[in-house]
Amino acid sequence: MRIHKGLLAGVLMLAAIAASASRDTHYRAPKLVGQSWLNVKPTDVDRIQNFKGRVTILHFWTFECINCKHNLPSYAAWAKQYPSNLVQVIGVHTPELPEERNIKNVQRALPKLGVEYPVLVDNDGANWNHYGLQVWPTVFVIDKKGRVRYTWLGELGYQGADGVQQVSRTVQELLREPG
Q1: In terms of C-beta density within 10 A (0-12 exposed, 13-18 middle, 19 or more buried), how is residue 54 classed?
Q2: Please, which of 30, 63, 93, 162 could form a disulfide with 109 given CB 3.0 to 4.6 Å?
């Protein structure tokens, strides 16, 4: 797990594991802001930013973070598993290091990392701040009404954690709910 603003890694990892099962939050997901979208047609941005009508797996990451890289195969699998009109996967790339701020570096990294779903480049950290984040990676599952219903902090499988199963179960539950 990458640490933001000098927080201690061990403390945050323990906090992430303890907080990883945060169900029933039911708060309105902050709207995504920013114009630098990758892997998406400009005409589709409004539809993607609107969390209503489909389940959304929203993850915050940065391309040089090893913990983020460990989660990427799960996001790619979900993006392939579900039709985009039912479940959308969105990555919000919030850089920490100077080379991660260069959008050309992000563009080069996406195919190497197997990221084919929409990614919003959050160089100024506006989305990071709206969601109140402190660690990479962080995953939110948003319901069809645009409410955050589940949050996972850190690697989905860190030390045997069942994050993939938890997120998958949450997505399945939310798909059964009326829109």
Answers
A1: buried
A2: 63
